[in-house]
Write a structure and sequence with these properties.
- The structure is a single chain.
- The protein is an alpha/beta fold.
- The chain is about 45% helix and about 20% strand.
- An 8-stranded parallel β-barrel has the order 1-2-3-4-5-6-7-8, surrounded by 4 helices.
- Helix 4 packs parallel to helix 5 and helix 5 packs parallel to helix 6.
- The N terminus is likely disordered.
């Protein structure tokens, strides 16, 4: 039931699992799942010498390692990019090839009442982050929910920012396709479908869903996350 996907998949990798496993183990797992790009979070507990070794080993095996930034506070204030820029510079200095933003103001308690405000802040974050990445020779991608305001989607489309649509949960494929139809049309194929591995009962059901989506025009996939991938193939 496997999908023939020469381009490979993307995946999220959190610091805790990175610290827990050896680099050789991680690379073998990524290769087993045909991962060609991994979004790696970094915090103060990370062994930076292990990180450097991992980046080298990943590159030798055709895997790109991007810097995952998942701090929601950047979307709380209009000057959020000032703080975000400092972290992106850290990612560049650590040797990452790209930046991945997983900033989720939709988790705020007042999001429904303040959607317009947070959308405007995110528009600026995405636009300025893209300018910064272009100037610094780095890729930029983002993760977004299925119900992202279209104003934000248009910003992503105009700036050619690769968008990972978090199609999580057990809703039907038809429902998810309907929810994201306008978004995907605006993005013009510059999007990937992000799966939560634990939404699936087994590897075969995951591949069946991928095959169904491929038939319907969605061909690029991202997995959340590497820890959930571990041991999932039986």
């Amino acid at each position: 039931m496997s999908v023939n996907k020469e381009g490979g998949y993307d995946a999220y990798l959190w610091t805790s699992f990175f610290n827990e496993k050896s680099n050789d183990y991680l690379i073998a797992l990524l290769e087993e799942w045909n991962i060609k790009k991994v979004f790696l979070s970094v915090n103060s507990t990370m062994d930076l010498s292990k990180l450097k070794s991992f980046q080298t080993l990943a590159s030798e095996n055709g895997i790109q390692v991007d810097f995952l930034i998942g701090e929601n506070s950047y979307a709380e204030e209009t000057d959020g990019f000032v703080h975000l820029e400092k972290v992106m510079l850290t990612g560049k200095n650590l040797g990452f090839k790209g930046i991945h933003l997983d900033i989720e103001p939709h988790t705020f308690d007042d999001y429904e009442d303040q959607t317009a405000k947070y959308s405007e802040i995110q528009v600026n974050l995405f636009r300025e982050a893209k300018k910064w990445c272009d100037a610094n020779g780095m890729d930029l991608s983002v993760s977004v929910p299925m119900y992202l305001p279209l104003k934000l989607v248009r910003t992503l489309g105009r700036n050619n920012i690769t968008t990972h649509i978090m199609a999580y949960g057990n809703s039907s494929v038809d429902y998810k396709l309907e929810q994201t139809q306008k978004m995907r049309k605006i993005l013009k194929k510059n999007d990937r479908w992000a799966f939560e591995i634990e939404d699936f009962s087994d590897y075969e059901s995951l591949k069946e869903t991928e095959n169904e989506l491929i038939k319907r025009g969605i061909t690029e996939f991202t997995y959340h996350d590497v820890a959930q991938m571990d041991g999932f193939k039986k």
